[in-house]
């Protein structure tokens, strides 16, 4: 089992924590991690874009000039794609971009992403993360003491003070253990979490 240091909000080491190999010590499956990211980004697309083909634009019912003898290239319609105001060649149409992953694949991809963060020493555990009031400066001080500038802060339960304190800091995002995903884990340089959040993650994914 992997052991990680536990820090307080001042950045001082106050102990260690043993992580479950079932979640934080799996064999990293890079292909599944890639598929999870592709699936997540694809599923965000609305797929509502639409353009008109030459059969759908108005006008152009009459041949603009006779076939021969004018010196111009032959034209059958002023709404052909080469004309201004003409239809679009291979016009995009509404479609569903959804890419589905099996439940087991999603879970393994998430565990692979978490394992990679632990292996790269980019997984920081705090004994607790609490603020008495909403204060961006307080959150910034915590990040500075941990020497982190771009981080995903994972909490076991919703804490308005922490979420609002981190909201205006560029490169920092808060998430609950129930909403973490592969894309965010890989996007942010460091994952900052609490002992309670680690226990919640292990309970769900072990």
UniProtKB/TrEMBL annotation:
GO molecular function: rRNA binding; structural constituent of ribosome
GO terms under cellular component: ribonucleoprotein complex; ribosome
Alphabetized InterPro entries for the sequence: Ribosomal_uL4, Ribosomal_uL4-like, Ribosomal_uL4_dom_sf
GO BP of this protein: translation
Region Disordered: start-end pairs: 43-82
This protein's UniProt keywords: Ribonucleoprotein, Ribosomal protein, RNA-binding, rRNA-binding
Function: One of the primary rRNA binding proteins, this protein initially binds near the 5'-end of the 23S rRNA. It is important during the early stages of 50S assembly. It makes multiple contacts with different domains of the 23S rRNA in the assembled 50S subunit and ribosome. Forms part of the polypeptide exit tunnel.
Self-association state and partner proteins as the record states: Part of the 50S ribosomal subunit.
NCBIfam families: rplD_bact
Protein name: Large ribosomal subunit protein uL4
